[in-house]
Fold these 2 entries.
Entry 1:
Amino acid sequence: MALPARSSYVVVGAGIHGLSTGYHLAQELEARGLGSGADIIVLDKTGPGAGASGIACGVVRNNYFQPAMSELMQACVEVWESDPAAYAYNPVGYMALGPEAQEADLVEVHERHERIGYRSTMVTGEAQVDSYMKALFPDWRAKGVTACLHEHQGGFAFNMASVMGLVGKCEAEGVTILSGVEVTELEFAGDDSVKAVITNKAKIEVGEQLVIAPGPWAKQFWALLGLPDHIDVRTPSGEVVLDRPMWTYWNLQEGEITVDPSMFCLADGGAPPVIHLDTDAPLYADEGQLITDELWGIYYKRDRHGVQGGASPLVVGEEIELDPYPSTTNVDPGYPDMWCAALSHAMSRFEGCRPLYKIARSGGVGAFTVDNFPVFDYMRPNVYAVLDSNHGYKMIGVGREVAKVLLGDHSSLLYPFRYERFATGDLHPVSHSPYPWS
Ligand SMILES: Cc1cc2nc3c(=O)[nH]c(=O)nc-3n(C[C@H](O)[C@H](O)[C@H](O)COP(=O)(O)OP(=O)(O)OC[C@H]3O[C@@H](n4cnc5c(N)ncnc54)[C@H](O)[C@@H]3O)c2cc1C
């Protein structure tokens, strides 16, 4: 298809955020009598789902310690629930299980769920958690768990299927999605707004606004926008931490065991929630050797061909070659042993699962901001950035909010994620979780 010379709204990146923005913006333009999907193009250097959205584990949950994340996630779950078939969404729920050190955080999260009307159950006390879990999974045997937050909403979605669901919704609204079009440069006007994007194919003039939703390629666009790669960060106490890297890459470690998926089911045979287990109980392989006696954690879900999940990510650093994506680097060679031992620690049905670990490329790299939370903001007068710090497959509702902001509304859900917070010290609270996105 020939490239248009101009488009009112140019969206870069056909992942969950770019596509959700395209779809919801088309709806908003139509509803307000301001235009339609024909005013929007979505560009992707490869194609829909070629970035992190196409390989995400797909977990959708609201176990967030930060009030702003929790409220935004509630809006996102609403979008997932609006069309489970198109989004390939499995509303099986989500369970976060943790040791004493995480109990207070989980209780606080649960209290907020109650306030905002997000359905969840909180169980505390080692014996109580054990019997709650055994009622769901009779072979539950994890140790050192004193808190369980059971979200009755959330669950997971199938990554590429949900991306293609959004592609269908965009196309039905008349949005044009162009694959194989790489943005290489931005052409600025005197007021710092972007006049045009230069691509590997041709130049496209930006009539109204440019949205960048480049996922792990955030740092490249940060540079194209002329933004600093290191910044000073004011903390809530007023202390200023100097010269912090704006972007750091982490490697997400994930894997899968090939089993009959139905072996992972509830006591009544139903579909199991996604499980996230953190504990400080020593972790042993089935053969008896100690794997770790420090805090460890895993997450896992029933997948199409087995059981899939991951563990804590590893820091890669400030530089990485992302292409061809997904680049996987710095993977801990002990990861399959750890993840399989942890599955077996949690439930005896997984005992002896190590030989079933699938040897395949798994996981991938994400780009994290300086405080590990998203930046959703105008970074130039007509350039809105959707940079989710790798939180974001679950954040399908961000595009709905961005669409409103592009048309002049204020979004109280996106406001806490403005870039200015690093200068003002208006940062998000930090939990006791070992993960950079909790
Ligand atoms: C292994 C892994 C597991 C994850 N699991 C989960 C999970 O379970 N739940 C969850 O909520 N999140 C998860 N995440 C995070 C989540 O996948 C990302 O936060 C989210 O998908 C980012 O979406 P996006 O639309 O911003 O970017 P992407 O999906 O990465 O899309 C960006 C697109 O931009 C395109 N692009 C880049 N540069 C250019 C350019 N110059 N010109 C044109 N196009 C360009 C790319 O080709 C790509 O298709 C996971 C991430 C990884 C890596």
Entry 2:
Amino acid sequence: MARNDETQVARRFHDATKYLEVPEEVNPQRFAMGTLPNVENAIWQEDWSIEPVPPYKVYEDLPRIEIPLALPSMEVAREIPQGTMPALQALVAYGDEPQGKRVPDRDTLVRIAMLSNGFLKTGGHRADGTVIEYRTAGGTGARYHLEEYFITGDLEGLEAGIYHYSAQDHSLRQVRKGDFRRVLMEATGGEPSVAEAPVILAMTSTFWRNAWRYKGRAYRHAFWDAGTTMTNVLAVAASLELPAKVIFGFADAAVNALLGVDGDREATLLLATIGRGGDPAAEAPPVTALNHRVRVISEREVEFPIIGETHRGSSLASGTEAATWRAHPLVRLEPEPASDRMVALRPLADDALPAMPIEDLIRKRRSTRNYDTDVAIDFEAFSTLVDRSTRGFACDALAPGALPLHEQFLIVHAVKELAPGVYKVHPQRGALELVKEGLFREQSTRLAAMQEYAGKSHVNSYGLTDLDAVLGAYGNRGYRLAQFEAALYGSRLHLGTHAVGLGAVGSTSFDDEVVEFLTPGREQMAYLFVFVFGKRRRKAAS
Ligand SMILES: Cc1cc2nc3c(=O)[nH]c(=O)nc-3n(C[C@H](O)[C@H](O)[C@H](O)COP(=O)(O)O)c2cc1C
């Protein structure tokens, strides 16, 4: 694949899955997906008889591996031991620390999986009356669709193999026996961290579980939710003093075949190495076809072809292609601030960070949609969150120390010492640039697809990218990377809010209106990710 030339697939997908408001005569629902005149209803969810249930993968013929803390799920979340590292420190670990040999054991892997894709608690009902089982990481519409697999050498408590984390009973199931890490070394074109890793995590999406509601846009959600979930994975790994690195360059078909997923209905989104050192990878057994019985989640599934087209069109065929693909990461240059209206951030020092560890924070996190519009949030807390969220993470396709692929804009409604307005974040200067002054609560609500919580919150944080530059550097696969990267940065900040007594929620937005409002005149910009945060309004005592 000539990576710089082929970008049409990603562009077509982006245009076909934009959200916008349309006149009533175009679509009576007003809220549509696509680009005029080619628009369609945004939300599907038409046939409740085929609602994907349960929202997790169940291997019906594989025995569960007994592990300690095999309690009902909510209790597991509560019983998992706390780390000692402050959450705001764990959240910003780059991923290469600490140095030296670091080999996780079985219980450590289960702990990472639990705190990123396990059950948190039940609560609330869906429109059809079923109870929602919330997970430890948020997910678009609670239409959870991600699975985690571990490809391991011999570890303490676990023989070499490929394991699926089974959320339903908080356990592992062995999908293959044997050390298959060499298959991944080849599929990634010899990515150095893979060669050193005792464990490689593979994250997949079963697109239908999300697409049943969101149609083709589920493919964006795959990378948003992967970013949200990987925030937990990386932070918990950091808290356990395990290095970790995200890998986006791999031969898709080879990895899917290894996991025994078809690459179409369920596909690998990313890999991540966990730990360093231990026994070197042995010669891998042959990768035979797998026929494990998996629980049917819908009697019939509907295909949204743009998902498959985009995924196939952004796939890599071999390890050699993967190595070439990642060889020249985009190093974005930031122009000088356009104005002299700069505000220096005033973050808390490391030794003044709140002590709350990441495990506790994950247990307490839930989406916040009710904000206290009578108060402003503290500038130090705000500065700490923004400052910490701009630090990078180890990823094979991103240059260490480079600016993120996206630009971050904050619509500030109520932060002490800051004039309300739109600010651009300048990570390397530790500063914000005021680009538009004013109280934009109404505009925030409108941009977030008319969701009022965005206008009532204290800050909206938007990630936008120059799509020409990203696709020019990475081809179609850059679209996956850009969505994921913006989501991961955003989710770090999102999660961090809870450490300073605030709350947050992800959102969806009207694509073109966001670009017009935040980066007027820059048509190459694309809206990627938004979440909002602030001080929660406590329920009035009755
Ligand atoms: C990327 C992302 C986008 C989201 N978008 C919206 C949204 O547009 N509106 C909304 O009410 N909630 C949104 N959410 C919140 C989810 O609905 C929420 O995470 C899910 O219901 C699980 O609940 P919890 O976060 O309280 O665990 C979003 C979450 C994520 C991670």
